[in-house]
Design a protein that fits this description.
Elements lengths: L7 E3 L14 E3 L4 H15 L5 E6 L2 H16 L6 E5 L7 H9 L4 E5 L2 H14 L4 E4 L6 H4 L4 H4 L3 E4 L9 H14 L5 H20 L3 H9 L4 E2 L4 E2 L10 E8 L2 E9 L4
Parallel strand pairs: 1-2, 3-4, 3-5, 5-6, 6-7
Antiparallel strand pairs: 7-10, 8-9, 10-11
Amino acid sequence: VTKSETPFLVGATNAKVTAQGSKWLFRTHVHDGQLADLIPEYLVKSLGKTRPGIMAVADDYGLGASKGIQASLAKLKVSPVAITSYAPSDKDMSAQLLEIKDKDADSLILFGRPADVTLVIKQMGDLGIKLVTIGNSSIVAQTTLNNLSAAEADGTYAIGGMIPQTSTDAKILDWTKRVQDKYKVPADNFTVSYYDTVYMLKSIIEKVGCDKPAIRDALAATRDWKGMLISYQADPQGDLAHTLGIYRNKGKTPELAGPIKESGY
């Protein structure tokens, strides 16, 4: 990126993406480092749970998040009763779930992708394990909910990027319907992020033209740029999204419990 000296905008979620010293790289989606702080904070401070089990997919995505979650819990003076993981290809997570149950957990922090998160939640039901469950946005992803019953999904929490389906704004709901009709897949937090990215860049080009350094400088100077669901503000690393949503599934329908902001924003 630095060699070409071209502004580069991404929605990648790995926290390290913007921590490599490039002044040309910007991110318009929330990242896993923010989730690793805010999921434990909400679980402990708002939901009052102090004996969580952790379960994460065993790849860079999940294990990195698990490590960050453990560090955040330590700051809150909470120790997880069990720290477990599963391979991305695993179909049976019952051993990990039973370990968490046997260690008398009062909650589960679950971090994975929609397909494996669906399996974990289904297997919790099969095993009769009832724990307050909170995790990343896979828990409220439409692809997850499509494969769960209302009873299986009900009451689970997620923190992540803003999901348009939870809006009460008629214009946003109409946009969401048009995305579904045109592309045959539901709009999600990444759809919102990239949609906002295009219009943010458009507004900057209209002001400064197509000069690459000028575009970069304008991105770095972004303050309170109002997107579809959140406002964006650039930090020194190039991260622009600092507001996340707290969601709770009511049956198979995710509801926005409220926004939660990264510390300092």
